[in-house]
């Protein structure tokens, strides 16, 4: 896409833009091949009960082990995935992989019976006709209690007029899976849309947590979101907890769950298993 058009109407590319377009195209080509080559991996970040520090579950976060560029984070390739529509395939894969892993862990670590798995679902996948059937058959196949699977969607997926997404959410809710609003507080949803929404839980966005100790307005927002979740009977997780001070503050205002580098970064499956075997390794 050209940023500048000359007076003549001709599009002017400079060398930098050309290279950018090239590497973009390369990434798209690579992305299609990456599925066949099995280059995507899920990492798992612990979700912890703030009071007592119990390991409650994990959020599955996708990584791309690129043969040339190394381990890529979603920020480096999700935009391409979204624009090409390949995000639907990626999310379908992530959902299958996360369910398989959750079932395996629940079987091998039965004393952590309440273990749950959060999976991110792009709004494009949320409107795809197959999503409900997919989730249903995965729950059956792996004999998972529906509530152990939690789908995270951002507020844009259910803003007013998104009737398709809303119907999917209601159908998923009827299956019994958990529905979580991701990055809560940064989207466009009206409070009214929550009155009748099928959500069970909120994840408070990390922008509020980052400076919660020094920014009184963010602290006020954190308190308000906590009260909001409490009043509506929604479980609440704070994202991006990095310091003991942040953790203490969130615990004090009554936020139940936390996730962040203080506890652990997202880990490859084998490393997450070490936490399951030895939960006392979770600090904070
Ligand atoms: P998210 O769902 O809000 O996930 C939380 C992000 O915050 C993760 O980044 C996580 O590594 C990061 N994070 C966790 N704790 C901390 C902390 O204490 N400090 C800081 N600075 N960051 C923290 P990640 O893995 O790079 O993922 C970024 C986003 O990509 C996710 O945000 C999610 O929206 C998206 N994403 C990841 N995996 C998938 C997927 O399978 N499907 C879809 N559709 N989106 C995904
Ligand atoms: Mg998420
Ligand atoms: Mg988030
Ligand atoms: Mg996010």
TrEMBL record:
Transmembrane segments: none annotated. One of its GO terms (biological process) is regulation of DNA-templated transcription. Residues 24-280 form the EAL domain. This is Histidine kinase. It comes from Arenimonas composti TR7-09 = DSM 18010. The lineage of its organism: Bacteria, Pseudomonadati, Pseudomonadota, Gammaproteobacteria, Lysobacterales. The chain holds residues 777 to 1060 of 1060 of the full protein.
